[in-house]
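DM between two lab members

TW: hey, do you still have the DMWD protein entry open?
JB: yeah, one sec
JB: this one, 358 aa:
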Amino acid sequence: SPQSLDLQRPIDKRVYKGTQPTCHDFNQFTAGAETLALLVGFSAGQVQYLDLAKKDSASRLFNEERLIDKSKVTLVKWLPDTERLFLASHASGHLYLYDSEQPCGATTPQYSLVTQGEGFRVFSCKSKTPRNPLLKWAVGSGPLNEFAFSPDGRSLACVSQDGVLRVFHFSSMLLQGMMRSYFGGLLCVCWSPDGRYVVTGGEDDLVTVWSFAEGRVVARGHGHKSWVNAVAFDPFTPRLPEGGDGDGDAPEDPPSVTYRFGSAGQDTQFCLWDLTEDVLDPRPPPPRARSDAPSSIPRSLSRSNSLPQPGGGPQISPRVPPALSSGRFATLTLREPPEKEHKRYHSLGNISRGGGGG
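TW: and the structure you got?
JB:
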């Protein structure tokens, strides 16, 4: 009860020497009065399991001898609606699936290839008895900076230092879609509450909205003056019903806001972005005359920096991404270079003036 809590003192406090905590995650599925499972990742590669409701009696350390991975843990996350399984991503570019009730081996794990595809490979651990890690994913090149599960828990979005967003069907380990950044590595990723859109941020100083169903970039937002470290959707922004105003007439007012998300950057700026229907569902472009047979890479893919989902859906005609508003200081456009050139080496102004932008 609140009366028994001393609000002047922490519930638990731990001091670590030789390594620093880099990430953590509570198990919301099992959280209750009897258990409060917490994962903590560290800069040296270990992952600690704590149960704050049971104190020191329920503490376990995974990758303690750093035989699985010696690089920094970039993110730990419980699998949605599970009691024991969790994922840990590392700066090595690897993603590991753990069972919190299984031990780690006393020797370096040996792996066998399960499946592979464009920019990724999945391995299982060779062992006569169950041991961690259960699976090892090698995703992209360079550090795996962040990952996020879709709201339904079926898909996993990963962003890497190679500047690629990859979306997997988690249980089947199949690649569902890809998107490349405008420039540099991607640092953060999140899903819209309904799972229709994925937003990323990174070293191009942009926020990018990618349609999961269409497999294409919907919009890019320019407002930050440095790398974008975090993005998150507002789960309370209502999605207004489609159609008229309730009287059977088509609405005459401008489209209402349907989504909102926030982004935080190393420029110490926090931006709020509104995704409106005119951005998400723009009018189709005018018909164009059919050209010769396309090359191995269609122009629509090279212009949008994204790959569609497998299945041979309709191709989107090349066009400049639409505008995205976030107040009076942030806009979305790739047609004109920024007014002031960034002092950092990775600057959109330099790219645009050098002809490298698209």
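TW: got it. The longest strand covers residues 257-265. Residues 20-139 form one domain.
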